[in-house]
Sequence to fold (155 residues):
Amino acid sequence: MSNESKEIGMKTLKHATLVFFSLVALLISFYSLGQDSVDLEDEDERIAYSLGANIGQNLVAQELIEGIDVQIFVAGMLDAFSDDLKLQPAEMMAAIQNYMERQADADQLALSENLTMSAEFLEQNSQNDGVVTLDSGLQYLVLESGPEGGASPTP
Fold:
């Protein structure tokens, strides 16, 4: 992976991590309060709920919650609030860096697999009757030709 790709990936991951930790803060409050449901009677409660739901939807969409033990995550947040961390800062940074690298490796593998499947599809598709492949790799199929000698839609 190029340095530029890693840099872009790290920026994206930092943004995603911020969103993820925001969601966790919300989760912690519900775990620590033991609430099974929330009261959404006033505007401030609806705003808070909507922000939390939006962050949660973003985390799900970005697939940042896969493989994370929520109870241990919440325990880490509560320990941070009480200033009673079980790991040293360097250990935590190493763990987070390892997680980010695993995620980047998984993303790179998925990209490689998708590129391989795309190339296979294009190769098979180029063998179909009537498919034209340009030098650029663009493929097209003329479904219906206009009349012979007819006017072209472009000059």
The chain has a mean pLDDT of 82. Residues 1-86 form one domain. Residues 32 and 78 are 8 Å apart (CA to CA).
